[in-house]
Amino acid sequence: MKVLVPLKRVSDPDNANKIKIAGGKVDTTGLEWKPNPFDEYAVETALRLTENGTNPKKREGEVIVVTFGPKETEMTLRAALATGADRAIRVDAKDEDLDGDLVARALKAIVEKEKPDLVLAGKQAVDGDSNQVGQLLAEYLGWPQATFAGTIKSEGDKSLVVGREVDGGTLNVRVHLPAVVTVDLRIVAPTSVTSIHTPPTHKYADGVRFAALMAIMAAKKKPLVELKLADLAPDAALKIKYTGFEPPAARKAGVKVKTVGELVQKLKTEAKVI
Amino acid sequence: MNILVIAELHDGSLRKSTHSAITFARQVGAPFSILVIGSGTQNAATDAAAFGAQKILVADDASLKDPLAERYAPVVAQVAKAGGFDVVAVTASSYGKDLAPRVAAKLGAGYATDISGVKNEGGKLTFKRPTYAGNAFGYAEVQTPVKLVSVRQSEFAAAEPSGGASPVEKVAIPAADPAASRVEFISLEAAKSERPDLGEARVIVSGGRALKERFAEVLDPLANLLGAAVGASRAACDAGYAPPELQVGQTGRVVAPQLYFAIGISGAIQHLAGMKSSKNIVAINKDPEAPIFQVADYGLVQDLFTAVPELITELKKG
Ligand SMILES: Cc1cc2nc3c(=O)[nH]c(=O)nc-3n(C[C@H](O)[C@H](O)[C@H](O)COP(=O)(O)OP(=O)(O)OC[C@H]3O[C@@H](n4cnc5c(N)ncnc54)[C@H](O)[C@@H]3O)c2cc1C
Question: Residue ranges of the Electron transfer flavoprotein alpha/beta-subunit N-terminal domain (chain A) (predicted)?
Answer without folding.
Answer: 23-236
